[in-house]
């Protein structure tokens, strides 16, 4: 297949961002309803839709997600009629989380219904940072483009932070609680604990590479974190502020060390932390800026994160 014949449909935002970083934006002919970066991608036809209202309260979204999954229904639908028209040669999807994007099974079923072509499916499955770099390399090989410069740049950004925090003592490494959902309360996991530790923090509750888990309110309060960072899945800065304020109004919250020292922060989880693509390097820089403002000032404050 010549490069001019390549037609990619990306069904996951992180996949779209990986393709863009590798210089393949112009090969993307279709996207998911959540793919919004880089901005020039927004004019591509949308190939998926959600079966739930993302503007609903967190508890309602959580219940609806559970009901759909228990009914063996997907949270997302693939518009097979759009796929048929686009005739992709490749589809980029994921096999990591049925709540984050269309499942691999759904994609395989949709592809089986196409009459004119059978595109190659590239499924990403990242759990830790190294997996994301591997995915970038895998995508580059599938399209025969070079990933060396992209990966060198990302790794260099990680190394700068690692070197700068080397001199910090254990007492200077704050205990950090990262909140991925507020109702029910859930901690951020997968690559997040690793990013926290790389940024000069001590990640509470979560284990790197493991799925996110529910957290008891009492456990959060009794652990008395030095910093609390909100990064709800799929929410921007404004929506995250609304979600966080529901928790922070309680009297117990006011007594937390993080609250009293002004280290409760909100982030744009949708743009950064929830997307296992190149912008995890940005996410690491945001964490470094939050946890060690005396060392790091990247300029994300106000757009990528804010103090609550």
Describe it.
The chain has 308 residues and is α/β, with parallel strands linked by helices. It folds into two domains: 3-125, Nitrogenase molybdenum iron protein domain (Rossmann fold); 168-307, Rossmann fold, CATH 3.40.50.1980. It contains twelve helices and 13 strands. It has helices at 13-21, 58-70, 80-86, 104-112, 129-142, 148-164, 192-198, 217-223, 237-248, 251-254, 257-260, 280-291; strands at 8-10, 28-31, 48-50, 76-78, 90-94, 120-124, 175-182, 185-187, 202-203, 213-214, 227-230, 264-267, 305-307. The strands form three sheets. Strands 7, 8, 9, 10, 11, 12 and 13 form a seven-stranded mixed sheet that branches. Strands 2-1-5-6 form a four-stranded parallel sheet, with helices on both faces. A two-stranded antiparallel ribbon has the order 3-4. Helix 6 (148-164) packs parallel to helix 12. The longest helix is centred in the middle third of the chain and has 17 residues, at 148-164. The radius of gyration is 20 Å and the shape is globular. The mean pLDDT is 88.
Class from helix and strand fractions: alpha/beta
CATH level 3 topology of the largest domain: Rossmann fold
Helical amount among residues, as a percent range? 25-40%
Mean pLDDT: 88
CATH architecture term of the largest domain: 3-Layer(aba) Sandwich
CATH class of the largest domain: Alpha Beta
Q: What is the count of structural domains?
A: 2
CATH homology superfamily of the largest domain: Nitrogenase molybdenum iron protein domain
DSSP E strands, number: 13
- Shape annotation: globular
């Amino acid at each position: 297949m010549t490069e001019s014949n390549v037609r990619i449909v990306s069904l996951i935002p992180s996949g779209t961002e990986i393709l863009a970083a590798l210089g393949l934006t112009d090969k993307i002919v279709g996207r998911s309803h959540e793919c919004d970066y880089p901005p020039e991608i927004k004019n591509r036809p949308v190939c998926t839709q959600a079966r739930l209202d993302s503007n609903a309260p967190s508890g309602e979204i959580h219940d609806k997600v559970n009901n759909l999954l228990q009914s063996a229904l997907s949270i997302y639908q693939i518009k097979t009629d759009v796929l048929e028209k686009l005739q992709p040669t490749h589809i980029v999807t994921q096999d990591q989380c049925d709540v984050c994007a269309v499942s691999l099974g759904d994609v395989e079923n949709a592809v089986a219904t196409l009459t004119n072509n059978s595109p190659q499916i590239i499924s990403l499955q990242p759990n830790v940072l190294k997996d994301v770099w591997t995915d970038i390399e895998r995508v580059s090989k599938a399209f025969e483009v070079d990933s060396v410069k992209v990966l060198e740049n990302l790794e260099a950004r990680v190394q700068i932070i690692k070197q700068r925090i080397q001199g910090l003592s254990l007492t200077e490494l704050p205990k950090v609680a990262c909140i991925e959902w507020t109702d029910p309360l859930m901690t951020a996991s997968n690559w997040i604990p690793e990013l926290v530790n790389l940024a000069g923090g001590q990640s509470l509750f979560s284990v790197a590479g493991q799925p996110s888990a529910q957290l008891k309110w009492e456990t959060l309060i009794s652990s008395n974190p030095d910093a609390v960072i909100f990064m709800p899945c799929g929410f921007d800065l404004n929506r995250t502020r609304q979600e966080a304020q529901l928790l922070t109004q309680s009297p117990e919250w006011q007594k937390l060390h993080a609250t009293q020292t002004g280290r409760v922060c909100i982030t744009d989880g949708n743009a950064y932390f929830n997307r296992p693509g190149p912008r995890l390097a940005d996410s690491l820089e945001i964490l470094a800026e939050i946890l060690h403002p005396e060392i790091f000032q990247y300029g994300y404050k106000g757009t990528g994160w804010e103090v609550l």
